[in-house]
Write a structure and sequence with these properties.
Length: about 200
């Protein structure tokens, strides 16, 4: 009987671990690239989204701040299957892989921004690896970086906030101001997201 309960506990633990890819959902949203650097603004919103949750949250942040918007995509698309995406994300993390991404920002393009809002789902208790690629490809020194994320249990962002602090060298990463929303509640969170932006003093 003790072995049975141990097996149940292990099964539940594995299920929770699989959910930690989350902040996403069970199906992949459109993988359309988005990049609008046309606004007269010193705010940039950069995000990665698989299920569409961060797509929604980032749109609200960009609209509330009047900021420019960039979506980070892996050049090799993640699978449509949730489980296959979870498997790939785990392998990338375990092997320290940096997927090639669609975003190439020049120093001149970045120069106009003082603040970067960084949005992502918590995957396997950390930042999705395409966001590692992005942060290692740009110089954010001297800028303010404000994280926001979705999750399915890692409400404190797990290790993702530490990772951002490590990768965004020289930036002022506002981990204490980070916004955390459970993936299943994102669809009804627009007012919360907008109020968060206002509370930080970034509403246009």
């Amino acid at each position: 009987m003790k072995g049975f309960f141990k097996l149940i506990a292990m099964t539940l633990a594995l299920a929770m671990l699989t959910l930690s890819i989350a902040g996403c959902g069970a199906s992949r949203a459109s993988q359309e690239a988005k990049q609008d650097l046309s606004q007269s603004t010193n705010v940039l919103v950069v995000y990665f989204s698989w299920s569409g949750h961060l797509e929604s949250m980032s749109g609200w942040v960009a609209d509330e701040t009047g900021g420019d918007l960039i979506r980070v995509l892996a050049k090799e698309e993640y699978p449509e299957s949730y489980n296959d995406t979870a498997d790939r994300a785990k392998k990338e993390q375990d092997n320290g892989l940096r997927p090639a991404i669609n975003v190439e920002l020049t120093a001149e393009q970045l120069a106009k921004y003082d603040t970067v809002f960084l949005g992502y789902p918590v995957w396997w208790y950390d930042l999705p690896m395409p966001m590692w690629t992005f942060l290692e490809s740009v110089d954010l020194s001297g800028k303010t970086v404000i994280p926001f994320f979705s999750h399915e249990g890692s409400s404190d962002g797990a290790n993702s906030l530490n990772t951002i602090q490590t990768l965004a060298k020289g930036a002022d990463v506002k981990t204490g101001d980070a916004l955390s929303i459970r993936g299943g509640k994102v669809d009804s969170s627009e007012n919360d997201v907008r109020e968060w932006v206002r509370s930080l003093g970034y509403s246009k």
